[in-house]
Specification:
The complex is a heterodimer of chains A (260) and B (310). Chain A has one domain (2-258). Helix content of chain A is 80%, strand content 2%. Chain A is built from 10 helices and 2 strands, in the order ααββαααααααα. Chain A has helices spanning 2-27, 29-55, 63-94, 97-102, 108-136, 148-169, 175-190, 202-209, 212-225, 232-258, and strands spanning 57-58, 61-62. The longest helix of chain A has 32 residues, at 63-94. Chain B has 2 domains: 9-230, Rossmann fold; 234-293, Alpha-Beta Plaits. Chain B has helices spanning 49-56, 78-82, 100-110, 115-128, 144-155, 174-189, 201-207, 225-232, 245-251, 275-283, 296-304, and strands spanning 9-20, 23-34, 38-42, 64-69, 72-73, 85-88, 162-166, 193-198, 210-215, 218-223, 236-241, 257-263, 266-271, 289-293. A 6-stranded mixed beta sheet of chain B has the order 6-7-8-3-9-10, sandwiched between helices. A 4-stranded antiparallel beta sheet of chain B has the order 2-1-4-5. In chain B, helix 3 (100-110) packs across helix 4 (115-128), helix 5 (144-155) packs parallel to helix 6 (174-189) and helix 8 crosses helix 11 (296-304). Chain B is globular, with a radius of gyration of 23 Å. Classes of the chains: A mainly alpha (260), B alpha/beta (310). The complex binds adenosine-5'-diphosphate and magnesium ion (MG). The site of adenosine-5'-diphosphate has 10 residues of chain B, from helix 1.
Chain lengths: 260, 310
């Protein structure tokens, strides 16, 4: 009973953080949406059209159809990462917004969880937008594709937790370039966004499969193209494991950083 | 629900300590603050004022001693305590993405206050802080004084039992400062318990019914401001500016001088009458001097020294 009450309290406080953020987003939704889905859409259209001419079919799909699921997952990764790094750092350090929140009954874990929820929501929003366009372009096979949305949200949870963990170490915005250059970009290039990973050397394939983006794509691609989804449990577990561990570590680190 | 009741003792600290880099920044502090009092904490930069206040709201782990706020053990019940505490931090952290009204709405939600209750409360608070006309302005459009009044209004959104203000008037012009003073007096009249830190002696003297002088994490003095001046220092001060050696020497001959200090080219003579020294000055050609009753600043300097801090 008491446990249930505490859980509800925790969630409702995290939601008040989430709703603060979505309220700010609502004021600037236009430019924000442009950034979040304009760029991935350009990639999809230009690369899909241009490269598609050379590449022809990949794994029995038109190149644009193959690319679409990769672009969707990458956009989920990027939206959550940006929000969990640059925007969260602004609120933590530059604007001291979190300190303001912590002068209310809200605690650090609730702030961090609220931010994770929010960054994952941003992933969901941009994936929604891209999915609508992809549907209009005829890149979506059937209605099962709607299940891409919860996958996008879970992918968002995973990468926003990782991003907040990075943020907990950050001393300035420049720090985030290490993470994007050394982790995010190589991961995007190697996880089967642009080409199937079985063309890569075995060792690199193992590395790619150890990273969460590969597992997001493995779930999204068949949903998009009407294929059969396999190893659902494995793929979901990897995303949830990464997110869970990073989320707990991020909370501990941020607690130490703010309450000192 | 299980919010704190109203105990007669609001703050109870015993041997409260905080250590940073092997230095006790708050050093075995013993302090009891009664409900309804307006308590000022004075101290030079780095004295440990902010750290002490941060411990009061669970923003700083305690390294030694015990602390209870509103009868609740800290930091264990920090969240519960913060339900009934208002905080005006040293550094503004208003939400720049929102208007004045939105700042209050969003903050109220953090306390879990329902939209309906909040709406009414916000009207009252905008009125109290004289920000009715600015309700829909962005934070960047407010003056420093308005921002501080909004921070004060925000701190009151939850109807706190204890209001903590860390240098609420630093950097404000005299008009803005007096506007804040007036609000704080009003709150005191309503029975709120207030704790404030300040660099301005005048502020503490006018507002507080109890002044705690703190330095190096320790309490140097603790009593009502008038009593502090009466007990801790001679009744009058003679300040002589740019005097030559021989004049200073002859002034020092006055037996009623209890204490003498020099700072730059100003000589301070402390005592009760100082009649002989004053006569001496009358008769000399030197007219750059000031004879005045001692004030809180003199007490402060006596207790914490004239050395510059940080
Ligand atoms: N997070 C911290 N880490 C290390 N030292 C700190 C920290 N916070 C405060 N201090 C030190 O503790 C001392 C007291 O600081 P503070 O409580 O802010 O003083 P005040 O508010 O009286 O000016 C200062 O010497 C300050 O440098
Ligand atoms: Mg301070």
């Amino acid at each position: 009973m008491n446990k249930a009450f505490n859980l509800v309290l925790f969630l409702s406080r995290s939601c008040s953080i989430w709703s603060r953020n979505i309220r700010v987003w609502g004021k600037l939704a236009g430019p924000s949406l442009m950034g979040n889905f304009g760029e991935p859409l350009l990639y999809l259209l230009v690369l899909g059209y241009g490269l598609g001419k050379f590449v022809g079919e990949v794994e029995g799909l038109s190149y644009m159809a193959f690319l679409a699921s990769g672009v969707i997952c990458t956009s989920a990764v990027n939206s959550a990462s940006f929000e969990g790094m640059y925007s969260a750092y602004t609120r933590m350090d530059v604007q001291q917004t979190w300190m303001g929140m912590l002068a209310t009954p809200i605690g650090v874990a609730e702030v961090v969880f609220g931010e994770i929820l929010w960054a994952a929501t941003k992933s969901l929003i941009s994936v929604c937008a891209i999915l609508i366009v992809a549907t209009a372009l005829g890149l979506v096979e059937n209605a099962w594709a709607i299940l891409i949305l919860p996958i996008a949200f879970i992918t968002g949870l995973c990468f926003s937790s990782l991003a907040l963990l990075v943020t907990s170490y950050a001393k300035s915005y420049d720090f985030f370039l290490y993470y994007t250059t050394l982790f995010i970009t190589p991961m995007v290039l190697l996880s089967g966004v642009f080409f199937p990973i079985d063309t890569l050397p075995d060792g690199v394939q193992v590395l790619a499969k150890a990273m969460p983006l590969y597992h997001a794509i493995s779930l999204v691609r068949p949903l998009m193209t009407g294929g059969e989804v396999s190893s659902i449990f494995l793929h979901l577990s990897v995303l949830i494991m990464f997110g869970g561990v990073a989320g707990v570590l991020a909370t501990e680190r941020i607690k130490k950083r703010l309450i000192k | 629900m299980n919010s704190v009741n109203s105990p007669s003792v609001v703050v109870e600290a015993s041997n409260l300590s905080k250590i940073y880099d092997n230095t006790a920044v708050v050093d075995k502090l013993n302090l009891t603050i009664e409900s309804g009092s307006f308590c000022g904490i004075l101290g030079p930069n780095g004295a440990g004022k902010t750290t002490t206040l941060r411990m009061f709201i669970g923003h700083c782990p305690i390294d030694g001693g015990e602390l209870s706020i509103l009868g609740q053990p800290m930091p264990r019940n920090a969240s519960l305590v913060r339900e009934s505490v208002g905080v005006v931090p040293q550094m503004d952290n208003l939400d720049p993405d929102f208007t004045v009204r939105e700042n209050l709405q969003v903050y109220g939600r953090f306390f879990g206050i329902s939209a309906k209750v909040l709406e009414k409360r916000i009207v009252e608070l905008l009125d109290f802080s004289s920000l009715q006309d600015k309700a829909d302005n962005k934070i960047s459009e407010l003056s420093g004084g308005m921002r501080r009044r909004l921070t004060l209004a925000r701190a009151l959104i939850n109807n706190p039992k204890l209001l903590i203000l860390d240098e609420p008037t630093t950097g404000l012009d005299p008009q803005a400062r007096q506007a804040i003073w007036q609000k704080l007096r009003e709150l005191k009249k309503q029975g709120l318990t207030l704790i404030l830190t300040t660099h301005y002696m005048e502020e503490a003297e006018r507002l507080c019914d109890r002044v705690i002088v703190m330095d190096h994490g320790k309490v140097m003095a603790d009593s009502p401001p008038k009593k502090l001046i009466r007990d801790e220092i001679e009744s009058h001060v003679l300040e002589v500016h740019t005097a030559n050696e021989s004049l200073v020497e002859s002034l020092k001959q006055d037996p009623s001088i209890a204490r003498f200090e020099q700072s730059g080219d100003i000589h301070f003579f402390y005592g009760d009458k100082l009649k002989i020294a004053l006569d001496e000055l009358e008769n000399s050609s030197h007219d750059d001097y000031l004879f005045r009753p001692a004030n809180l600043e003199d007490v402060f300097i006596k207790l914490t020294g004239r050395d510059l801090r940080e």
